[in-house]
Amino acid sequence: MTSPAPLIPYVRPTWDANEAEALLAVLHSGQWNEGPWIARLEAELAGLLGGDGEVVTVANGTLALFAVLRGLARGAERPLYVASSLDFAAGPACALQCGYDLALVDIDGASLNMSAGALDELLTRVRGRHDRVVVNPVLFAGRDDGLAEVAAVVEAHDAWLLEDACHAAGLYLDGGARHWRPAAASRASVLSFHPTKNVATGEGGAVFTRDRELAAYLRSLRSHNIDRAGEAVPELALTRGQRNPWFYEIASPGLNLRLSEFHAAIACVQLSRLRDNWNARLAIAARYRDAALHHERLRLFMPEDGVRSAYHLLPAALGPKAGLDRHQLFTRLAAANIRLQVHYVPLHRQPAFAGQAYVSAARFPVFDDLAPRLLSLPMYPRLSAEDQARVLAVLVDVLGDR
Ligand SMILES: Cc1ncc(COP(=O)(O)O)c(C=O)c1O
Question: Which residues touch 317 (CB under 8 Å, ≥6 apart)?
């Protein structure tokens, strides 16, 4: 009996003895939170993202979105949150829990990013109804195409931009010098270090912002708004006129949103391999592009210049004449021990969001057409040329070649 071919997942974290060594160093140090690794990670991330901003790390990308959205809603009576329907649920879910109204808009059929036209239509329609509007486009799969147009629409409508850069860490190498500059036209940029992401720590997230006041708000919120310099209650702060060394004050309720030192240590090592990993992703993307695949039966979504992406994902869509549906394709690849994934089930179809007034009233012609056919191919830095050839051979077998 022949043994089955080894599993090729759609994503796999990259790590080696360096992560293990960093973890052991934290273990031995005895300082498992609020220590030097967090400080180092925040400084290194800020350097990567442009130097002139601040990074506040938190326990995951969802909480990064939650904290920023709470901060951006301050002082607003009826804030509105806008995302595209092709996104992870984290932003919309946090927005609803932070008291925003929710609107979703359609995507651009080439980049899969938020459609600037659909955004403009929405913001024109709701003009005057909300005293604050936060637009939160995801850099889908790690691409920045169309973001400049989205930013222009946001500015024209006096709204605020907040980038979801959870897919985009690699695109931000060198402060986005070659690409979109993080948090340059926006209030902040949010990152995730989920195990599938280009910088992975297990659970982790960060906010990058050039707004010092917002950064201070986030730092305070993530540690229960504990203030050791506070003076609101002098009889608790002082003994015989001397400051009590144990004193702290909490003026408003906060949370524990902190990342641990273990996670920060892994993230520092991961950051050091971001450039090599991005180059590996570029090579994998090029091999997909150059393969003899029948591109009308399986359309690949890649930027025209080949490099304007972090290649967090390699999205593809079955063509109308593919000869099989997505479920059948998943089954055929699973039989060869190859896994695909779907990013994402349309948010406007999710029960959690579908009933929101602006969502049920909206139309999504581009995404509705694409959604049943959209999938993600295996993409991770250590996907070997041999394993990728196996994926391509099965795809050619199922879909034909060009
Ligand atoms: C686009 C997007 N936004 C937000 C998140 C939430 O990040 P996390 O899983 O770290 O909470 C993710 C990742 O999972 C994501 O892909």
Answer: 298, 299, 301, 370, 373, 374, 375
